[in-house]
């Protein structure tokens, strides 16, 4: 399996965290590959496939995905499985970054998988997909995807206040009071929740919960024990921590850290190989 991470070009760097390339053209590998569990994250993503298409597992059924699509912020884990020789480019947006590319309310994309042609001009999506299938190397494919993103970028002003709120939540690892944040930024709590949902795609409370969940993974991988994590992340008790963790992963912390389903993905796109400031762990 080929795995590589790229920085966005300067025109996109305010909005895009990174671009990831995954390729698996070895028939032995994909014939025996387990589903990939993608964890809740504060980053919306675009996935563009070349080769065979992927399937998403929902309600114990496998549904075939389109060639290119957008996945909004995830509030629970999702599982994907390959159908054969597959290459995928994943575009990871910074919190609020997707708003620069579309006028749709970002919360409409939450927990959804949507074809790009439903969001962006169909002729631009079709042209990008066709040229991507004809490209002969990884750098050429990344250049094509970034050119596409520049072409569909909306020239709308960003809601700076909401982006600053998101940064504050991340800076405090999700351990914040939304009421206090609203007071600190001189905005009503309901107004903050509505605007945050429009720009980021999720309520500030749910965003903070996901940030805190991601921080628990970071602490555990740094060697902290569960008692330290409960105290550091301000959980009421261990049962509260386990309950929240299981809601995001479908398993207990002990089960999660004992079994790595896709270790090569976690290692390549994990803590030690990060190109940006994001602390989000995508894969188990």
UniProtKB/TrEMBL annotation:
Residue stretches making up the HTH araC/xylS-type domain: 159-259
Keyword ATP-binding on this protein? no
Which InterPro entries does UniProt cross-reference here? DUF6597, Homeodomain-like_sf, HTH_AraC
Q: What's an example of a GO molecular-function annotation for this chain?
A: DNA-binding transcription factor activity
Q: Does the keyword S-adenosyl-L-methionine apply?
A: no
Q: Which UniProt keywords apply?
A: DNA-binding, Transcription, Transcription regulation
Transmembrane stretches in the record are none
Matching Pfam families: DUF6597 (PF20240), HTH_18 (PF12833)
Q: Which PANTHER family match?
A: ARAC-FAMILY TRANSCRIPTIONAL REGULATOR, HTH-TYPE TRANSCRIPTIONAL ACTIVATOR RHAS
User: What's the protein here called?
Assistant: Helix-turn-helix domain-containing protein
Q: What is the lineage of its organism?
A: Bacteria, Bacillati, Bacillota, Bacilli, Bacillales
């Amino acid at each position: 399996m080929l795995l590589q991470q790229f920085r966005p070009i300067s025109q996109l760097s305010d909005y895009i965290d990174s671009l990831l390339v995954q390729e698996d053209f070895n028939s032995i590998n994909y014939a025996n590959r387990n589903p990939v569990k993608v964890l809740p994250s504060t980053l919306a993503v675009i996935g563009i496939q070349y080769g065979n298409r992927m399937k998403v597992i929902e309600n114990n059924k496998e549904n075939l995905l389109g060639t290119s699509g957008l996945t909004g912020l995830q509030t629970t884990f999702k599982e994907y499985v390959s159908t054969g020789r597959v290459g995928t480019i994943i575009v990871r947006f910074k919190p609020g970054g997707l708003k620069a590319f579309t006028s749709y309310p970002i919360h409409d994309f939450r927990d959804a998988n949507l074809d790009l042609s439903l969001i962006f001009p169909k002729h631009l999506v079709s042209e990008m997909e066709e040229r991507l299938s004809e490209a002969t190397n990884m750098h050429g494919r990344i250049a094509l995807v970034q050119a596409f993103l520049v072409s569909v970028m909306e020239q709308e002003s960003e809601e700076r206040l909401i982006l600053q709120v998101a940064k504050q939540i991340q800076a405090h690892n999700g351990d914040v009071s939304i009421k206090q944040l609203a007071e600190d930024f001189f905005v009503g709590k309901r107004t903050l929740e509505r605007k945050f949902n429009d720009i980021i795609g999720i309520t500030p409370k749910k965003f903070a919960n996901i940030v805190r969940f991601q921080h628990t993974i970071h602490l555990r991988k740094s060697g902290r024990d569960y008692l330290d994590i409960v105290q550091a992340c301000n959980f009421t008790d261990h049962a509260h921590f386990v309950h929240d963790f299981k809601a995001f992963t479908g398993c207990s912390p002990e089960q999660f850290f004992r079994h790595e389903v896709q270790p090569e993905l976690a290692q390549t796109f994990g803590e030690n190989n990060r190109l940006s400031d994001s602390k989000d762990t995508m894969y188990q």
